[in-house]
Design brief:
Blueprint (H helix, E strand, L loop, with lengths): L7 H10 L3 E5 L3 H10 L3 E4 L3 H4 L11 H11 L7 E5 L8 H14 L4 E5 L5 H8 L5 E6 L5 H4 L9 H17 L3 E5 L3 H10 L4 E4 L7 E4 L1 H4 L4 H4 L17 H14 L14 H6 L10
Parallel strand pairs: 1-2, 1-8, 2-3, 3-4, 4-5, 5-6, 6-7, 7-8
Length: 290
């Protein structure tokens, strides 16, 4: 494995070379060491920590202090992986707040990129941060911080109008200076369209196979998150502990499957018919849509 530190230029090179980018969340030193050894390219201090670490039902209670704390736990133990951190709910409601939050997670926490949710309405914030040297990942599709506004976690961009809006938003955000795009819970065909049109790498979580990389929540792939233990496993999640000798082997298997294209399989994608269903009902839509 190449041990040179991953940076934005390397991520662009990987995309140009057709090498898939493997990303995973992380929240502490022990897992940071394992993920770095296992070849994870991007480590995300996700506000998912509110659900998998704090036990909340949503991500909205996570604070900038929380992100800074967990970033400080992880950053010193990454030799190769690129560290990205979420800006929590309402921490980027204004230009000034966005800059202050970014300064904290980068200077205090050691992150090298911030991630924020929202479409074209966030373009001014993306540009404001980008021209000041803050690398930004823009998060489209299902946006967990908007759950109280949306009402539930569900697939986005299924109708033509919503798909065209998301495609346009992706272009606007990239033009504003976003260095990465992250797409969550959208039809595979839409993920492919956005990735093909994007000038920057596109990472997916439940966004199909034709994007430039994949990201999952660490606790989900280890089958220990509250959702999976309660039997509410998202369609895009695969249990990598099944058959693994240990945690590092499970994470290595995830990285290898992302790199090879084996993950995600059709059964992990939205609006794609799994082969087993297609064999039984070749003319029918996927009955397992979520």
């Amino acid at each position: 494995m190449d041990t040179r530190p991953v940076n934005i230029a390397e991520l662009r090179r990987m995309r140009a070379a057709g090498e898939k980018i493997a990303c995973l969340t992380c929240y502490d030193a022990s897992f940071a060491l394992i993920e770095d050894r296992a070849g994870v390219d991007i480590v995300l201090i996700g506000d998912s920590l509110g659900m998998v670490i704090h036990g909340s039902r949503t991500t909205t209670a996570v604070t900038v202090d929380d992100i800074v704390y967990h970033s400080k736990c992880v950053a010193p133990h990454l030799q190769r992986a690129f560290l990205m951190a979420d800006l929590p709910f309402l921490s980027y409601a204004t230009l000034e707040r966005a800059l202050d939050a970014s300064q904290r997670v980068m200077q205090e926490g050691g992150a090298k990129m911030v991630k924020l949710e929202g479409g074209r309405e966030q373009a001014a914030i993306v540009e404001y941060l980008a021209v000041r040297g803050v690398p930004v990942c823009a998060h489209l599709g299902l946006q967990p911080q908007f759950v109280h506004k949306m009402g539930t976690f569900k697939v986005q961009g299924r109708d033509d109008a919503a798909a065209e809006t998301m495609l346009h938003d992706a272009r606007v955000l990239a033009d504003a200076g976003a260095d990465l795009l992250l797409l969550e819970c959208i039809p595979a065909a839409l993920g492919q369209r956005i990735a093909a049109a994007s000038p920057v790498p596109v990472i997916g979580i439940g966004a199909g196979r034709e994007v430039d990389g994949q990201i999952l929540v660490l606790h989900d792939i280890l089958h220990i998150s509250p959702m999976v233990t309660l039997g509410r496993t998202p369609r895009f999640v695969k249990n990598y502990m099944a058959g693994a000798a240990d945690i590092e082997s499970a994470i290595r298997a995830y990285v290898q499957e992302v790199k090879s294209g084996a993950y995600p399989a059709p059964e992990h994608c939205f609006d794609v018919t799994p082969p087993s269903v297609a064999a039984r009902q070749p003319a029918q839509p996927d009955p397992q849509r979520q």
